[in-house]
Amino acid sequence: MSLKEEQQKVRLSDTKAFRFLLSYLKEDKKLFSFGMVLLVLASASGIFAAYLISKVIDKGVLNNDYVTGLYYASYLLFFEALAVGLIYFSRRILAKVGVRTIYRIRKAMFRHLNQLPMSYYDKTPQGRIATRLTHDVDDLEQFFSVSLGRLGVEFLKATFVWFAILLTDIRIGIFISISTLPIILITYFSKTKIRNLHWAMSNQSSRINSQLSENIQGLNIIRSFGLEDFSKQKYDDKVLGYLGAAKAFNRFNTFLRPIMSFLSQIPLLVLIVLGGYYITRDWLSIGILITYFRYVEQFTSPIEFISREIHVLQQAFTSADRVTQFLQERKEKEILPSSGTQHAKLLGDIKLADLSMYYEKDQWILNDINLHIKSGQNIGFLGRTGSGKTTTIGLLSRLYPYQKGQILLDDQPIEDWPLNDLRQQIGFVSQDAYLFKGTIRENLVLHRDFTEAQIALAVKTSGLQKLLEAKGRNLESEVLDRGENFSSGEKQILAITRVLLHDPKIIIFDEATSHVDPRLENLIQNTLKEISKNRTMIIIAHRIHTLDICEKLFVFRDGKIVAEGSKAELLESSAYFQELYRFSLTKEYND
Predict the structure, then answer these.
(1) pLDDT tens, residue by residue, 185-196
(2) Alpha carbons 452 and 571: distance in angstroms, whole number
(3) Where along the chain do its domains lie?
């Protein structure tokens, strides 16, 4: 997805982005409101302290009445100290609320991550997903834990002081208000530019993460083919893209800040000229003029701060856009609705009737697939890569939607089965078995409760026990990330054991022996014979001898089933199967 496409996908206004951010404060609404009340009181206290300056000067210093002057001065110090204390406690409260809010956002994003359909992961680079869950959430955390309190203090201070300026003397108040318009207008009209620059930086950061993820995952290929310089060049290109976006942001920021600093001094110059003129006409006391200097300082300082820190707000709003975009991605249950009426245990009878599907509209992957697999039957899928084998079994687990036809499990539409119930009763072993960092036991049980007897039976049946004894390992042996300390064949045996332990009624093997040596392949073949009893088993393979244990074979070609029957029957009746068989025997068959 290009930068322009992603920007257009979800574009919240500043108001909507801010409302989105505050929506996660609902659970702490009372605490947040209390913190804001403290900020209001702090602002009012600071303004009243500034007003007392005029009393100290006019009633104390100018009248040589130092007792009265000290009286008002003591109140001034009290309200200044009160303002500082209230700001301290309010910001502590807002920081606490911010941390808890970010915790809720992180939980919501991870929960949503587990609810997205497989099609989302097929189309979205891993680096972009990682950026959403890390970089963008970190920006929101900065906003909630730091910026929200500071911006709240400054905004309320500016608002209260503005009212105080107008109420103290409406004429001076109007002139000072007019003099602040340039900085307010520039801040308003520059925010879109700043936000777009942040979008560009964030997207370039996502591309860096995506490239980095690709380089790490493909490190074996990079080393094997000596592609270090090539991969470095691709990574450098992404870094240079980010550098260009960062330079553009810094150039604009460097141009904007001095202008803001200059414009923030205009109200002070207006006050000096106007105040001096009023004093010479006895329209204003010296005490009120000095109070106005304090007001203007308290008024322009927040405006300058907000205008200077507008990029922090826009960065948070940009991240809010991107997080919203992520959270608005359609969930799996929306794409794959389920009536949830079936809760019985699967028997394993599978029927596909006139089934057709596509990933991209009108680019059909499967065309009018019809097959019937009886409960307890072992069948094989055969065909070249891209012929539709893996897509078909993906539909059995409802990983993707289909557009035409019907899938029946035990004569019930697949949509009647709740997704979790369905998937827990279908075991899947792919050609690239995935192991989690932990122990062998943890990778087998997957945080479910099994007795030692159940585990021991599964380990023995699959042949894992002999494999562990030969390697001097046991169930508590360590598994490194992605199972890097196990060979491909050993990982396959572990994956088969894991499926066997969970005792599904339907087991699917997708090229489960494609990466293993003959010794382990024989072990896996014997294991398959053992675990196929009283279960429906589907084996996908390129090598035809892998399918010898299958009662029936379905031959796929260009998204269709072009032949079906036993191996002997197909050798007699199907020219295409004979072609595949010859290739398999001569080792000329490839993907």
Answers:
(1) 887 788 778 878
(2) 46
(3) 15-331, 350-586
pTM of the model: 0.71
Half-sphere exposure of 264 (CA within 13 A, CB side): 20
* Parallel/antiparallel/unpaired status of strands 364-373 and 536-541: unpaired
CA-based nearest residue to 268, from 181, 185, 182, 176: 176
pLDDT of residue 520: 67
Give bridge partners of residue 429 from the DSSP assignment: 509
- Condensed to tens digits (0 to 9), the pLDDT of residues 36-86 reads 888 888 888 888 888 888 788 878 777 788 788 888 889 889 998 998 999
Look up the CATH number of domain 350-586: 3.40.50.300
- Decide: 406 and 368 in contact? Cβ < 8 Å: no
Measure CA 328 to chain center. Answer: 11
Buried b / exposed e across 147-168, counting CB within 10 Å, b at 16+?
Answer: bbbbbbbbbbbbebbbebbeeb
Beta-bridge partner residues of 479: 438
Helices 14-23 and 310-327, packing angle to 10 deg: 70
Predicted local confidence at residue 106, as pLDDT: 87
Q: Which two tokens stand for residue 9?
A: 């996908």
Q: What is the DSSP letter of 590?
A: -
Q: What is the distance between the alpha carbons of residues 446 and 449, in angstroms, rounded to a whole number? A: 9
C-alpha distance from residue 398 to each of 250, 416, 505 (Å): 48, 12, 16
What is the model's pLDDT at position 81?
A: 93
Closest alpha carbon to 297 in 180, 182, 187, 167: 180
Distance CA 377, CA 541 (A): 17
Contact (CB, 8 A) for 580 and 382: yes
pLDDT at 149: 72
* DSSP run (H or E) holding 151: helix 148-168
| Contact in structure between 332 and 115 (CB atoms under 8 Å) | yes
Name the stretches of the chain with pLDDT < 70. Answer: 1-15, 17-18, 21, 224, 308-309, 512-521, 585-591
Question: How many Å apart are CA 236 and CA 244, to the nearest integer?
Answer: 12
Which CATH number describes the domain made up of 15-331?
1.20.1560.10
**77-97 CB burial, b ≥16 within 10 A, e <16:** eebbebbeebbeebbebbbeb
